[in-house]
């Protein structure tokens, strides 16, 4: 959980130019224009499932954390009032942030545990 939150924080501290932020926001608005509950579920599932792949899941999860933080940085560039909101507050104080943090941390940790079990032959001895 700590590594995910730290990587998210690093992403949120990224410097985003106004042009990059405008591009991100236009793509984001187009993406969520017609999304419903099932669409959100499908999107989150496609992000979370690769996190269970041994080894790769750790890198994928950390990239997901960084890109979520970067998205927050882009949003704060277009809406400066959000600069007063600490990025980790959104992650730890909102129900959606807590669910994302828990689910992604489970996926990342299982990926690490699986790669460790595969690389350690003593685990398969019994």
TrEMBL record:
The keyword Transmembrane applies. The chain crosses the membrane at residues 58-82, 88-106. Keywords: Membrane, Transmembrane, Transmembrane helix. This is Integral membrane DUF95 protein. The lineage of its organism: Archaea, Nitrososphaerota, Marine Group I.
């Amino acid at each position: 959980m700590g590594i995910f939150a730290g990587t998210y924080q690093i992403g949120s501290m990224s410097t985003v130019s106004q042009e990059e932020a405008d591009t991100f926001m236009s793509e984001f608005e187009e993406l969520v224009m017609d999304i419903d509950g099932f669409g959100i579920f499908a999107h989150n599932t496609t992000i979370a499932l690769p996190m269970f792949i041994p080894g790769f899941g750790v890198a994928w999860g950390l990239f997901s954390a960084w890109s979520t933080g970067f998205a927050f940085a882009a949003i704060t560039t277009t809406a400066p009032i959000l600069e007063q909101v600490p990025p980790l507050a959104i992650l730890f104080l909102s129900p959606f942030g807590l669910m994302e943090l828990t689910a992604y941390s489970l996926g990342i940790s299982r990926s690490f545990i699986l790669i460790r079990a595969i690389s350690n032959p003593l685990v398969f001895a019994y």
